[in-house]
Amino acid sequence: MTIDPKVTQAIKDGRVPDDVTAAFLSESKDAPAIAGIIFVTVLTSIVVLGRLGSRAFLIRRFGIDDTLTLMSWISYIPFVAMSIWLINMGSGRHYYYIQYVMDMDTVELSEVVDFAAHIIYTTALLFCRISGLALYYRLCKLHDGLLTSIRIVFAVLIAGYLPQLFLLIFHCNPVTGLWPYDWQPDADKYTCLQWGLVYSVNSGVSLLCDLLLFGIPIVMLRVLEMPRRRKIQLGCILLPGISVIAISIARLVLVIMGQWEADQSWAYNPMLGVEVSEIGATLIALSVPGVKPIVDRFVLRKDPSKGSTGDTRYGKQSNNSRGTALRSLNLRPEHSVLGSRDTSAEGGRANFRSANQSKDNQSETSADGILVKVDFQIKEDSPRDHSSRHVL
Questions:
Q1: Contact by Cβ (8 Å): 124, 79
Q2: Taking a C-beta distance cutoff of 8 angstroms, is the pair 69, 52 a contact?
């Protein structure tokens, strides 16, 4: 093992106790942590920028969810840069390295950067989650029950963000960006909450928010009426975000290790990697539907601007493409927004007429950019409507 020159110098200066070896102080997990962070960041950027490009140039509709996703990504990049900076300063080395090898100016700088980075981290996650809610709102805007649920989750996200932010800002009295160790000069000037306590509470709130956010697609799949095979296909588009919940749990575990284990800082690099992955996985999960038009255009060689149904039991449709916009999918009868039997039949006839509209109208109905191949039918109460062809 190569001995860190800073460790050698600290030993020469007499700052290191005799029972702490140079080999121990030179141990580092910096390189794999930085490599993992860069990989996740590049992957996230490719998916997010692909989604934004798809929405802007293929679908040609850029909604508020896309704007929020862009804001999330813009916040994400500085957090990644600050995470790598913290690692390079030595924040993820052994606790004794921070205490005996790092100079006091670097220790204080690392504490301030950590403080600022986690304000950015918390804010970026909020933008991610609200962009997800905006996406779900756009897809479910005809379903009152789901819209109410989305509004409630939005209120919970805001209510959860504020205490997270205030805990970070006011963790010490008087207010400071430092997280002073007991051995730091002037540490007795501050009365502070424990770093691990603040981050554990914030991690718990973050986990709750992820459970609520990524529970919405499960409810959407429950109320959508379509064959099981089609639900599985749709689930592959809407449910990757469940992996974010596992990442949130991992972060909570690492925060606990970072505060209450003897070698506190040794878990810091993995925690930063998990935090970068949490934002990245959230952005990727919410961007997968928006990337699908790129796959349709350049891989499947389909025109994503056209959305129509394929063959149904009512007959062969006039178009060859069988994609349909997710927001136009039929809902289970108990959740249906079609209303009474009269409005259902009228809606079916109106939709049939809309099939003969111009290409511009077809583009409008499918412009959401989430095209799901699906064959289905409207359940009718009147026998006379069974012979009609319906296009949703």
A1: yes
A2: yes
H helix and E strand count, the chain: 14, 4
Provide the residue-wise pLDDT of the chain in tens; the chain has 392 residues. Answer: 789 999 999 999 999 999 999 999 999 999 999 999 999 999 999 999 999 999 998 888 898 999 999 999 999 999 999 999 999 999 999 999 999 999 999 999 999 999 999 999 999 999 999 999 998 888 887 778 889 999 999 999 999 999 999 999 999 999 999 999 999 998 999 999 998 899 999 999 999 999 999 888 888 888 877 788 877 877 777 777 888 999 999 999 999 888 888 898 999 999 999 999 999 999 998 898 888 788 877 777 776 555 443 343 333 343 443 333 444 454 444 443 333 334 444 444 444 444 444 444 443 334 344 444 333 333 444 444 444 444 33
Give 148: exposed, middle or buried? Use CB within 10 Å, 0-12, 13-18, 19+.
Answer: exposed
What's at 188, amino acid-wise?
A: D
Residues 24, 261: contact at Cβ < 8 Å? Answer: no
Name the β-bridge partners of 373.
323
Question: Omega into 174 within 30° of 0, i.e. cis?
Answer: yes
- Residues with Cβ within 8 Å of 68's Cβ and at least 6 positions away in sequence, in order, are 127, 128, 130, 131, 134
Two tokens at 271?
């925690």
Q: Which CATH class is domain 5-298?
A: mainly alpha
Continuous segment of H or E residues that includes residue 371: strand 371-373
Choose among 260, 163, 248: nearest CA to 211: 248
Residues of the chain with CATH 1.20.1070: 5-298
CA distances from residue 228 to 30, 186, 238, 333 in whole angstroms, order as listed: 46, 64, 15, 17
